[in-house]
Amino acid sequence: MKKEILIRFGEIFLKGKNRGFFEKTLISNIRENLKSYNVQIAKIPGRYVVKNYSEDDEFEIIERLKKIPGIFSFSVAYCVPTSMEEIEKASLDLMDGLSGTFKVQTNRADKQTLSLNSMQISAEIGGKILQKYSQNLKVDIKTPQIVLNIDIRENKETYLYEKVIFGVGGMPVGTSSTGLLLLSGGIDSPVAGYMMAKRGVKVSAVHFHSYPYTSNFAREKVEKLAKIISAYTGNMTIYMVSMTELQEQINAKCNSSYMITLLRRGMFTVAERLCKKFGKKMIITGESLGQVASQTIESMTVVSNVVKSTPIIRPLVAFDKCETIDIAKKIGTFNTSIEPFEDCCTVFLPENPIVKPDLQKTLKEQSKIDFDAIIDRAMESIEVVEINHD
Ligand code: ATP
Ligand code: MG
Q: Which one of the ligands is nearest to 345 CA?
């Protein structure tokens, strides 16, 4: 019997006039993601189907579909031409060898082809199953152990399945513009990137290093994290930018308690310049209010002050660390994030970082170095790394 994967999409339904664009983007994302498998992906009214795949690839395809934003749920289904005989045959086949309580649930998108209504189809097929497997199976309408779903679609095909596998939901990547993620090697920023990809943002990243104070290991770790989240975001470009000169200059000339404030102003200045240069529409960070000295509202205000016309999105701003960790574990970044590494923020770490910086005092400290020229040189240090989700 023919097996196909029946895909249901989520919030796309809410999009009214834009629905065509959302659907097209999702199907092209699915195609791109499954391109190394020899499969056919087709659209049928209200659903997508993956067909002609090799049984050996089924597990991997399922794992991939679970991570594509915009997919609400999917099922591995038997697919038969819509007729009572075919549905009966497939139902008996599917229930063969199962035991416990069951019910049949029918959904008819196509109300023309069969003369029976949904309830009648369920009753009819349920009766046949009972006739054949009465030793192992019993009907329980309220709390069945097994639900046999019969989905009668408008393409004159009927899909029969037992399990519904949930995807990440959200919106297809590419339907909510583009963003630049400040990606460190920590726990929070990969989660922030995942969350925005789930809202449909095409995410690129910038990583700031202080080579040679930070090692290549820190960089490899960031690439490894990007590779993990690329299962959700799709291929990702990372801009690697050196903050070495800025940190050295701050260290030599400014009040050390302003190190992090000034460094972060440098990071956000570079981030906005990258957004302008590469057409990214938002800056995304993993900041969470009050988590550390640099994430008080005063710090965020003084740092954000360098960004003139790009929105800064902080998807984790109201999260407790443990909530972020739960997501990091779910998306598979946690174990990599907790590997030891030096971030450029931890090089030249001041003993008393200022917790509530004042803008005027910060500007006075900043004026002790040639901030703009240092940023210009940082922009020249950019290296581009392409992370492919393969
Ligand atoms: P994370 O777990 O993401 O590293 P954190 O709790 O360590 O976050 P901070 O070091 O204060 O917090 O950084 C706050 C945010 O600033 C990060 O979530 C990230 O978006 C950005 N950031 C920090 N360091 C870097 C870096 N070296 N390169 C790029 N972005 C960075
Ligand atoms: Mg960090």
A: 1
Is residue 140's pLDDT more than 70?
yes
Ligand 1 within 6 A of CB of 294: yes
Tell me, using a 6 A CB cutoff, whether residue 345 lines ligand 1.
Answer: yes
- Tokens 């820190």 belong to 218
251 lines ligand 1 (CB under 6 A): no
- Rounded-to-integer distance, Cα 90 and Cα 161, Å: 10
Whether the model clears a pTM of 0.85, i.e. scores above it, the answer is: yes
Which of 180, 182, 184 most suits a substitution to test ligand 1, by most atoms within 8 Å of the C-beta?
184
**pLDDT value of residue 1:** 84
For strands 312-313 and 283-284, give the pairing. parallel
Q: For residue range 296-318, list pLDDT tens digits in order.
A: 999 999 999 999 999 999 999 99
Tokens of 239: 């801009």
